[in-house]
Amino acid sequence: MALTSKVAIVTGAAQGLGRGFSEILLQNGAKVALLDVNETVGKSLKETFDNQYGPDKSLFLSCNVESEEQLKAAFQKTIQTFGRPHIMCNNAGIINESNWEKAVSINLMGVVRGTYLALEHMNKLTGGQGGVVVNVGSLAGLGPLPCTPVYTATKHGVVGFTRAMAAASDISGYGIRFNVICPAFVQTDILNALYQPEKTGQFSSLIENTKKLIEMYGIIEVPDVSKNFLQLVTDETKNGEALAVLQKGCSYVTFPAL
Ligand SMILES: NC(=O)C1=CN([C@@H]2O[C@H](COP(=O)(O)OP(=O)(O)OC[C@H]3O[C@@H](n4cnc5c(N)ncnc54)[C@H](O)[C@@H]3O)[C@@H](O)[C@H]2O)C=CC1
Ligand SMILES: CCCCCC(=O)/C=C/C=C\C/C=C\C/C=C\CCCC(=O)O
């Protein structure tokens, strides 16, 4: 899938992986709606992107993925400005084992909200033009990260949800591909959760175990994840795939055939 003039929506786009995914889409000619709750960082990123890619290539929209209303409004504004979306990346995510309901609401329910809105606007069966949804899981969506049981659960949920949507799309003919990217530790602000006991709550005592896992897996840089993300967006043969991204390389996950 060539990206020139394609329209993309990325949640949690202001910094970290969302910023990296947005940038690689812009570099490849797409127009990107940058959605985030952090207006200060989001607006400043939009200025940076204006200078690099031109003022009409991106759009910052203040949007909390916990709010169906805000997400709906962000889709409407994107469509008014750039036209209907071809690419949706549900990236926004947090670690909060103390307020774990919030983690579920953002990491899992936010992905479901964003995916269903993408389906509404992209489904070929209802007048859409098809496209691709890439959800952001984690290696913690494929195995346990002991210091964050609820985060682990939400990411397993994202993997299962994405695979089921891909199968539904295949069977029904939505013309939309659904894939999930599952990185190991990446150099972004979320890693600071390790040193914030309020984020890991009752599991903050597992800090040494987490440090060992980080030592074992290493820390990946954002651009290395972005290039794998691009593969899931552009490779039209990929639907229902979970792509594990490790420092040593990436691989498509083989799930047990049941
Ligand atoms: N950095 C890592 O080691 C890994 C991160 N991930 C996932 O990558 C995704 C992005 O995280 P990072 O870039 O690492 O972290 P980050 O903390 O740097 O970025 C997260 C972004 O999401 C935004 N955000 C948070 N809550 C939001 C909400 N309710 N609505 C809209 N935006 C919201 C934040 O303002 C921020 O811009 C998350 O889903 C995370 O779980 C997955 C595997 C590894
Ligand atoms: C401080 C926590 C940062 C969390 C960000 C994140 O999502 C990072 C996850 C990195 C690794 C997860 C660790 C362990 C996962 C366990 C097993 C993986 C098994 C993979 C498989 O294919 O079976």
TrEMBL record:
Does Acyltransferase appear among the keywords? no
* The enzyme's E.C. designation: 1.1.1.141, 1.1.1.232
Specify one Pfam family.
Answer: adh_short
Q: Which UniProt keywords apply?
A: Fatty acid metabolism, Lipid metabolism, Oxidoreductase, Prostaglandin metabolism
Tell me which SUPFAM superfamilies the record gives.
Answer: NAD(P)-binding Rossmann-fold domains
Q: In terms of domain of life, where is this protein from? A: Eukaryota
The entry's cellular-component GO terms read: cytoplasm
The record, for InterPro entries, names: NAD(P)-bd_dom_sf, Sc_DH/Rdtase_CS, SDR_fam
Answer yes or no on keyword Manganese. Answer: no
Instruction: Provide the function of this protein.
Output: Catalyzes the NAD-dependent dehydrogenation (oxidation) of a broad array of hydroxylated polyunsaturated fatty acids (mainly eicosanoids and docosanoids, including prostaglandins, lipoxins and resolvins), yielding their corresponding keto (oxo) metabolites. Decreases the levels of the pro-proliferative prostaglandins such as prostaglandin E2 (whose activity is increased in cancer because of an increase in the expression of cyclooxygenase 2) and generates oxo-fatty acid products that can profoundly influence cell function by abrogating pro-inflammatory cytokine expression.
Q: What is this protein called?
A: 15-hydroxyprostaglandin dehydrogenase [NAD(+)]
